[in-house]
What we know:
Blueprint: E1 3-6, E2 13-19, E3 25-29, E4 33-37, H1 39-47, H2 53-65, E5 71-72, H3 74-80, H4 88-101
Parallel strand pairs: 4-5
Antiparallel strand pairs: 1-2, 2-3, 3-4
The structure holds zinc ion (ZN).
Zinc ion binds at residues 7, 9-10, 12, 14, 29, 31-32, 57.
Amino acid sequence: xxxxxxxxxxxxxxxxxxxxxxxxxxxxxxxxxxxxxxxxxxxxxxxxxxxxxxxxxxxxxxxxxxxxxxxxxxxxxxxxxxxxxxxxxxxxxxxxxxxxxxxxxxxxxxxxxxxx
Length: 116
Ligand SMILES: [Zn+2]
């Protein structure tokens, strides 16, 4: 079962990939990546407006690049609230890694996403 819905983290259109075991559900967001979410974590994301959404999105992307589909539960969503913004050097490294992941023919124009 997949449905279009809004990403519980960043709010853009995302794909709800259906229930997983327990009360977790699967999501794919073009900005954040692929993740699973418990009902408690979903409730926290809906109510806590102070959470650093771009940093949580970056954390999910980092997990996906490492081959992991992270599962967000009540405990780690609250812990993700204390993420700090990476240094400029680290953000540039990540940006270049993301740019390098696009497989384009040599000489093709490469359109990169906006750096967050
Ligand atoms: Zn998202």
